[in-house]
Amino acid sequence: VQLQASGGGLVQPGGSLRLSCAASGSIFRIDDMGWFRQAPGKQRELVAHITRGGSTDYEDSVKGRFTISRDNAKNTVYLQMNSLKPEDTAVYYCKATVTYYSTTHLSTEDYWGQGTQVTVSS
C-alpha cells in the first residue's frame, strides 16, 4: 500500500490550494483519513480528519478555511485550503487507516504519504 500526496506549492496570503492524496495497492477498505502538518521546529499536528462515512473535524485555526473530503471509489482524500495565512506554511502529510489483502488474511495498518510542501508568502 502506498499513499501519494500532491498539490502543494507557493501561494500568496489569502490564496488557495487543493491537496490530494491517493492510496494504491491491495486495498480492501480505507477507514479514517486525515491531513497533518509539520512546520520547522514544531511537532506534527492534526489539521483535519474524515471518517469513511464522511464525518469531519478540524484543528481550530483552520475551521472555516479548510475543507476535507474524500472519494471512497478512488481511495483519495482532499484538503481544500482557502484564505491561506503565512502560519499555514508547513509540510503537509496525509494518513490513512487501511485494511489490505496480505497473503492469507486481511490486515489493518496506518499509512503515511510522503509529504507535500505548502508555503504561504508574499
For the termini, the CA-CA separation is 38 Å
User: In percent, how much strand structure appears in the residues?
Assistant: over 45%
Shape: elongated
- Secondary-structure element series: EEEEEEEEEEE
Number of strands: 11
Q: Measured on Cα atoms, how large is the radius of gyration?
A: 15 Å
Main beta-sheet annotation: 7 strands, mixed
| Uncertain residue segments | none
Which structural class should the secondary elements be placed in?
mainly beta
Mean pLDDT: 96
Number of helices: 0
Kindly state the percentage of residues in helix.
under 10%
SSE layout and pairing:
Layout: E1 2-6, E2 9-11, E3 17-24, E4 27-38, E5 45-50, E6 56-58, E7 66-71, E8 76-81, E9 90-101, E10 106-112, E11 116-120
Parallel strand pairs: 2-11
Antiparallel strand pairs: 1-3, 3-8, 4-5, 4-9, 5-6, 7-8, 9-10, 9-11
Molecular structure report:
- 0% of the residues lie in helices and 60% in strands.
- The chain is built from no helices and 11 strands.
- It has strands at 2-6, 9-11, 17-24, 27-38, 45-50, 56-58, 66-71, 76-81, 90-101, 106-112, 116-120.
- Strands 2, 4, 5, 6, 9, 10 and 11 form a 7-stranded mixed beta sheet that branches.
- The mean pLDDT is 96.
What attributes does this structure have?
elongated, four-stranded antiparallel beta sheet, 60% strand, 122 residues, mainly beta
How would you concisely characterize the structure shown here?
The chain has 122 residues and is mainly β. 0% of the residues lie in helices and 60% in strands. Strand 9 (90-101) and strand 10 (106-112) form a beta hairpin.
